[in-house]
# Entry
Amino acid sequence: MDILHSNRPADVSGLDAVPLPSTNAQAAQTLVARCPVAAQTPLLQAEAIAVEAGVAEVWVKDERGRMGLGSFKALGAAYVIACDKERGDHRGRTYVTASAGNHGMSVAAGAQAFGAASVVYIAQSVPESFAARLAEQGAEVIREGATYEDSMAAAQAAADLNGWALLSDSSWHGYVERPHRLMEGYLVLMAEAIAQMPSPPTHIFLQAGVGGLAGACAALARQAWGDAPTIIVVEPTVAAALHGSVKAGKPIESQGPVSEMGRLDCKMPSLIALKGLARDADAFALISEAEGQAGAGAAMVAGLGSSTSGAAGIAALLALSDGQKETLDISARSVVLTVLSEGPAA
# Structure
């Protein structure tokens, strides 16, 4: 495992016009609470993981049951569509997106719940079982390209051509309003975790694809706990979007083959997340495919069945060498917070 340590804030250029992540958790909590299937997800103490990692406690925010969609992503796109409904802007609208996983489910479910339409572009590598689940939620599913970035380019072109509302979980120059609001929805899970933790954690491991979950959670963690926790962002070695951009000092596209950690296999970072994590994260860790698989296996044995993407934070904790633990000040006294972001891959 490769770890890039950051002296906060990291110097990343080209982000002056990009907003920092929201920390207005109350706005998201108030709106999400109106959803009939909204309910707090549990924070679990994983004693077996703590023993294996050699730390005092490991706490796992379990998002596998979130709003019946099986992932934290239920809090994102559906929240944006709910905000549009509050303003009466959703009627007759078609929302279009690209998805490497559960974001598309949130777009489809949110659109269906509020009487809008949805179109989801997916790459050729996305399993057919996931395409079927999207269709069950009422989405029109279109395969385009070999990678998430290819399908996102197709979704953006379709939005421009048809006058559809592009609802991406990433952000780039000229496209920040909807993803900024989407990340605000993710604050709900972190606000719950902050209230559920018996004491502040010493370390937080946050997996990242484009970085929306990590960026939102890190921003609220800093607001609640200040500089105390060490925050580690976890990505696949072959999709080092945030790690590579922080190292380069500017947003760059990662190069690499397709990762089995498919939900995290994003080669370009969300600029909002990158700006936030450059300020808030202490380290950026890259885990190999084998380390991701080992982490998911350990989580399953501990009764926390998940995909390699969903258990990537746990995987990084377990993959640390003694020297890396020492550098991160992880010891037998450490209290670690992780997010189990989804259930087993369908």
User: Anything to note?
Assistant: The first strand starts at residue 2 and ends at 5. The mean pLDDT is 93. Residues 177-196 form the longest helix (20 residues).
